[in-house]
Amino acid sequence: MPDPAVWGACPQDGAKDIGKVIRTWHGGPYGPPENQLGAGDITLKCGTENVGFRHIVNRHGPQWQTLADIEGRDWRDIADMALTKNITNPDQTAPQDGGKWCVSSEIYLVNKDSGEVVKTKRTRTILTDKHEVLTTFPTDDGCN
Which three-class secondary structure state does DSSP give residue 32? Predict the structure, then answer.
């Protein structure tokens, strides 16, 4: 697996940088032609407590860190791996209420000493119809 991309920084005082893009992927299209989120650049923004990076770190950071501990890495490395796979090569996609889209796939966590896969985990990412990441998190099921 290649090294994860470096994410941009979100200042502590987030009132002024809600829309700051800290990571971009190219993904899509998702879904069948009659109901599809077209291809394009998908962005992760600093966001708020409800969406984007700030939501992910505050609501799901501990979940990502539990997985990152398996590989002896930082939570952002594992979240980036999952986001990259979900956005660029999902094995499940589904439209959601409110013009949102779910993209989901499995990631494989490797013991750094033995090189063996020690855990497989499904992850889910929710996107807006404007190609923005709302949230991403580990889960036991994919897109519903």
Answer: coil
Angle at the Cα of 105 (from 143 to 65), degrees rounded to 5?
Answer: 105
Structural domain boundaries in the chain:
20-139
Task: Provide the H-helix boundaries in 8-94.
Answer: 52-55, 61-71, 75-88
Contact 24, 8 (CB under 8 A): no
Per residue in 83-123, pLDDT (tens digit) is 999 999 999 999 999 999 999 999 999 988 899 999 999 99
3-state secondary structure of 25: strand
Total number of residues shown for the chain: 144
Cα–Cα distance for residue pair 42/21, rounded to 1 Å = 10
Q: Mapping DSSP to helix (H, G, I), strand (E, B) and coil, where does residue 83 land?
A: helix
Q: What count of other Cβ atoms lies within 10 Å of the Cβ of residue 112?
A: 11
Alpha-carbon span 71 to 58, nearest angstrom? 21
Alpha-carbon distance 81 to 79, whole Å?
5
pTM higher than the cut 0.85:
yes
Contact 52, 45 (CB under 8 A): yes
Q: 74 pLDDT exceeds 90?
A: yes
